[in-house]
Amino acid sequence: MPTLLLRLVGPMQSWGITSRFDQRDTGKEPSKSGVIGILAAAQGINRENWTDLEPLTRLVMAVRHDRPGVPKRDFQTAGGAVTDTIIRADGSPSKDGVVSQRFYLADAAFLVGLECDEQALLEQVHSALQNPAWPLALGRKSYAPSEAIWIEDGLQDSPLRVVLERWPWIASLRKWEDLPDKLLISFESEDGSGVLKMDQPLSSFAERRFGARFVSSEWIPFPQEVPHVST
Question: Got the DSSP string for 148-193?
Answer without folding.
Answer: -S--TT-EESS-HHHHHHHSPP-S-B-TT----SEEEEEEE-SSS-
